[in-house]
């Protein structure tokens, strides 16, 4: 679930899944207003974190949010829809963060692919720390049916985006492997950040990982 979002403009791009990302999010009847959405997803995150997805109950989520179970079904179609909405929220925030960082770096004249990639990786990791409860939930194996396939699809899309950002020739196997290794390093570091005890330790990890990425990104291929 890791990767740097490539963008050429100053606005954050909307989600553009690659052709293979065909697994779809559930249709909903209506999106709740911002306050209700925040409350409902916050309650869902609490219950999923405490109970795990399989053991989480809709009644408890509704009770904590102060909304009726029927309202939960109306907006998200059930527990699976809530979980996927949390995933979408995390991904969108990470995309906004990394896209804004890349735009700012380009604005100040940075054009080296490795420098841009590492700046985006830092932004992604800082976002994983800031949203660590949600990030840790989404890497667990206890998710709804079909989520692993959806996550793998987007992982592959992120690898391709990173390859474009690094200007790697994707036709060469060595280039593809190199980018996949880099993306895997970011994902593994994001998981470790979830177990950090304080911000100082988290910053130390982010700095160390960015140093590793600089070294690995500089290799030919």
Automatic annotation (TrEMBL):
Query: Where are the compositionally biased (Basic and acidic residues) regions?
Result: 15-33
Give positions of region: Disordered.
Answer: 1-33
Polar residues biased stretches: 1-14
Q: What is the lineage of its organism?
A: Bacteria, Bacillati, Actinomycetota, Actinomycetes, Kitasatosporales
Sorted alphabetically, which PROSITE patterns does this protein's record hold?
Answer: HTH_TETR_2
Q: Where is the HTH tetR-type domain?
A: 34-94
**Which PANTHER family does this one have?**
HTH-TYPE TRANSCRIPTIONAL REGULATOR BETI, HTH-TYPE TRANSCRIPTIONAL REGULATOR RUTR
Read off the InterPro entries from this record: Homeodomain-like_sf, HTH-type_TetR-like_transc_reg, HTH_TetR
Record-given protein name: HTH tetR-type domain-containing protein
DNA-binding region, residue range(s): 57-76
Provide an example Pfam family for this protein.
TetR_N
Tell me which UniProt keywords the record has, alphabetically.
DNA-binding, Transcription, Transcription regulation
